[in-house]
């Protein structure tokens, strides 16, 4: 990966786009993988906003481990590598499809969560706000955390099917991609839209695209460099002198 490290070092403005692959290295199952959430019975209902309004227990039962068990996971080698590159002034921002909050745990500051985040929850009735830790505490006593003021369920600020992506995070991600002269895609199949439409914006603006992913992606044909091994990327960054 010497060529990639040289590109990272010489680039003026580097943006990063991450997917499930960077978190599976930490032991977090890929929602779309063989043992993932979407293989469960009635999986399509778990992140469906209409079903949540009808019966929020479907979401909380389905995500008790995969979302509210995230507290036990620590950042992996890619998360730490990107935080180091940000501290070095190389990476200007991380656009992520993930909802596990591990980029922030690793120390990254400029993180744009295009599919939302469970860091905050809001009551679907009156809008009262609770933090992730507060919701976890409430789940120890009840299967569905409900608002003390109106009795409605708290919903995570994750984008459910039937909802639009978080406007601010998406707009910031688009601006980052258009400004970057190097877009680094890590661990994403680039098949989930509209988030997958963001990396090509760098190429259209005259920048380069580098993809590190175990499987082929629809954007491989426009990438300058292709690599299959995320661990190799993280090891190269770790070996790079500050």
Task: Report on the architecture of this protein.
The longest helix is centred in the C-terminal third of the chain and has 13 residues, at 167-179. Helix 7 (102-106) links the parallel strand 2 (91-96) and strand 3. The strands form two sheets. A six-stranded parallel β-sheet has the order 3-2-1-7-8-9, sandwiched between helices. The chain has a three-stranded antiparallel β-sheet with strand order 5-4-6. It folds into two domains: 1-27 and 75-115 and 164-242, TPP-binding domain (Rossmann fold); 29-72 and 117-158, SIR2/SIRT2 'Small Domain', CATH 3.30.1600.10. It is an alpha/beta fold and 242 residues long. Helix 6 runs parallel beside helix 11. The protein has eleven helices and nine strands. The mean pLDDT is 93.
